[in-house]
Design goal:
By secondary structure, the protein is an alpha/beta fold. The protein has two domains: 89 residues, no CATH class; 154 residues, Ribonuclease H-like superfamily/Ribonuclease H (Nucleotidyltransferase, domain 5, 2-Layer Sandwich). 45% of the residues lie in helices and 13% in strands. A five-stranded mixed sheet has the order 3-2-1-4-5, sandwiched between helices.
Length: 285
Amino acid sequence: MRPKAKYAVIYRYRDEYPVSVMCKFFGVSRSGYYDFVKRFGKPEHDAALARKIEECQNKTDKTYGYRRVWKWLKDRDIARNPKTVLRIMKKYGLLAEIRRRRKWVNLGQQVHRYENLLKRQFNASGPNSKWVTDISYIQTKEGVLYLSMIRDLYDNSIVAYKTAAQQTVNLVLDTIRLAMKKEKKRVAAELQLHSDQGFQYTSQAYFKLTQSYGITPSMSRKGNPYDNAMAENFFSILKTECIYRHKPKTFNEANDLIDRYIYFYNHERIQNKTGVAPLTLRHSA
């Protein structure tokens, strides 16, 4: 980061932290900072656009990368080159955080296995024809909170989700029941539900429930997480843009964060591929 960018960050947070401490942290001199402040009153070429980008990041909890910021600006008739947006985000410390990879674990005895019908064909021609599902975990000081979700590959929206303090078959079954309750009038005649080979998805109870709803299960090959990449992808987004940044201490805090984030994700978060939020595409179908 260039000294000028460091000075801009120090100036922005001058009312929250001591200037001397921030100068020491960034490895710049106080005299250099105050020289910067003297010149700060002069109009800066990038300042106006930086303020709009900061507005975008404040509204989205600083989760947007430069492509989504560029689309956000474009929707407000602010036309700039994407590389210009990236440069200014770097200059003013407005970049989103980098995602972390999730560790993949397979547990339990397998009773039922299913053919891989999805075969990494991650596009769907209409809503509720291809769903993917998985379970992930949220670390809190109270312990691990497990999150089960179903994502629709048509628009990448989260159709249903459930949390529990234990990773059980019932957590998965309840997620399916909720999804079918919400979407039963709009479910395609041949609905595929793709999962990994976790014990919940190979259980007899899962088999019976999917059969009762007329759902066709599809399953990743053993030890190949790429087959269920779209489920993994959502958990990566959720954890990087929300959980890792806010570090919930309790189950209640984690549930509140998940509720708020999934609403934001479904209704407001711009997708790079479509340029709109998931449910915007769904409601126009």
